[in-house]
Each structure stands twice: as structure tokens, then as C-alpha cells.
Amino acid sequence: MAITISLVALFGLVLYFLLRNGSLSYGGAFTAAGFGFFLASTGAAGPINQTATAIVQAISNL
């Protein structure tokens, strides 16, 4: 659970800076956020969470 919240905060921060710098339009940001919410409700959510957890654990073991 803590990893998920941390990744959400990280992606939210990156999205904020992309919007602030003009690298991403508001429509693109809305589309990306919507895609994330819809992706989370599919069967792909489990493997994505497992992959993210494995990556975070690998980084912490370095």
C-alpha cells in the first residue's frame, strides 16, 4: 500500500511539472489520468502492481 501511494505521489508530481512547463497539455493530462483509472480496473492492474513492487524492491536492495 505504501508503495502505491508513493508512486501516485511521484507520478502526480511529474504530471504537475509537465503541465507547469507546458510540455503536456491539459487534455493530454486528463487523458493520461483517465487511462490510468481505467487500466486500474482491468486485469492488467495486478501485474503492473507486482512489477512496480519488484522494481522498488530491487532499487532498495542496491
Provide a descriptive summary of the structure in words.
- With 62 residues, this protein is mainly alpha-helical.
- Helices cover 82% and strands 0% of the residues.
- The radius of gyration is 13 Å and the shape is flat.
- The two termini are 22 Å apart.
The whole-angstrom Rg is 13 Å
E-strand count: 0
Largest sheet: none
Number of helices: 3
Order of SSEs: HHH
Question: How large is the share of residues in beta strands?
Answer: under 5%
The geometry reads as flat
Helix/strand structural class: mainly alpha
The share of residues in helices is over 70%
User: CA-to-CA gap between the ends?
Assistant: 22 Å
Low-confidence stretches: none
| Average of per-residue pLDDT values | 81
Secondary-structure blueprint of this entry?
Elements: H1 2-21, H2 26-40, H3 45-60
Which key phrases capture this entry?
single chain, 62 residues, mainly alpha, flat
Compact overview of the structure:
The chain has 62 residues and is mainly α. 82% of the residues lie in helices and 0% in strands.
